[in-house]
Design goal:
Blueprint (H helix, E strand, L loop, with lengths): L23 E6 L2 E6 L4 E7 L1 E2 L6 E6 L2 E6 L2 E5 L3 E3 L8 E6 L7 E5 L12 E2 L7 E5 L2 E5 L5 E7 L6 E2 L2 E5 L9 E4 L5 E7 L1 E2 L7 E4 L9 E3 L5 E4 L4 E2 L9 E5 L5 E4 L7 E5 L1 E2 L7 E5 L2 E5 L5 E7 L1 E2 L7 E5 L2 E5 L5 E3 L12 H12 L10
Antiparallel strand pairs: 1-2, 2-3, 4-5, 5-6, 6-7, 8-9, 9-10, 11-12, 12-13, 13-14, 15-16, 16-17, 17-18, 19-20, 20-21, 21-22, 23-24, 24-25, 25-26, 27-28, 28-29, 29-30, 31-32, 32-33, 33-34
Length: 369
Amino acid sequence: MAPACHKASVTFKPFEPIEESANLYPMAKGGKWGYMDQTGKIRIEPQFDNASDFKEGVAVVWTNKQTFLIGKSGLIFTDPHIALMCNTVSEGMVMAAKASWLSGGWGFINTKGEIVMDFKFYICLPFSEGLAVANVNGKVGYIDKSGNWVIKPQFGPLSYPFYDGLAMVTVIEGESRGKRGFIDKEGNFVIKPIYAYAKDFSDGLAKVTFGTKDDPGWKFIRPDGSVAFTLNSRYDCFGKFSEGFSVVHGFDNGKSGFINKQGEAVIAPQFDEANDFSEGLAAVKVEGKWGYIDKTGKVVIEPLYSSVRDFHNGLALVYIDDKMAYINKAGEYIWGPEEHGVKPLISPEKAKELKERIESSPYIYHPPE
């Protein structure tokens, strides 16, 4: 389809073109959102009701109930009758929906602002490895970037995007109805639908379970279907692997820790909560405050914050009460909290005490030589 040009019924302040090499981060001030760069300099003045992350050089913003696709040189696309979905930019495509989305008005535009397919799907998921999950009439299939079916709709709604060349799908007909397995990009089962529950592949492993009385536990399998390891029955695992680690939760103490890809508890459960590793660091919560550890379990940023996000392009968004700030991997403030005139939630002495308690924990596991 040809590019679609639409005049914005809602406008915003233009901004000076920004170099493509700049990393941009959403920030809020005075109740409005804008963007800063990696030095903390504001590059797009706060003016939006909300703003999503920049990815692939573009971001979705919205104000007065209208969405806009912007790039580093200004407006790319807007249409008062089309809603762009935040944080769905992937492989040059942006998920979008028409006003009739409740009855099947989903589709995609590309990051050039071109409408590249009809808005005819009930729901979609972002593109991954060249294909996107699309649902019509309650059945899921996979489309290409022109909206054509590559794998016709035949699976249940609990079917996932492609990762590591495979997609987890749910069978809805025949003897395997309700079971999960993994298909290739031809739609053929590479790992048969024999599991009661399964997650998609990440870091070369996928979590599965038969969910039977005789075999109720979690296993992690490789792309060839072989079992890498069975999760220790003392742990539960809600997430997936990231940078060689996965968060687990201990039944004994209700705490969170990390296993490696051999299933070993390299940092055993000792945190109130924990996030996946991102850019070498993982956010952990101790006594109601968040900080960051490295892959040895060492605290590198003390637990000071009421809420945090993972590191992205070298910075992490953190909150002190309801005030936002950005820090680097040294724990230095790049933007805020001095912008808001607030102080850390706990004293440096208390933060040091928590850090020492974590690092002296007897639960840090060291594999035998």
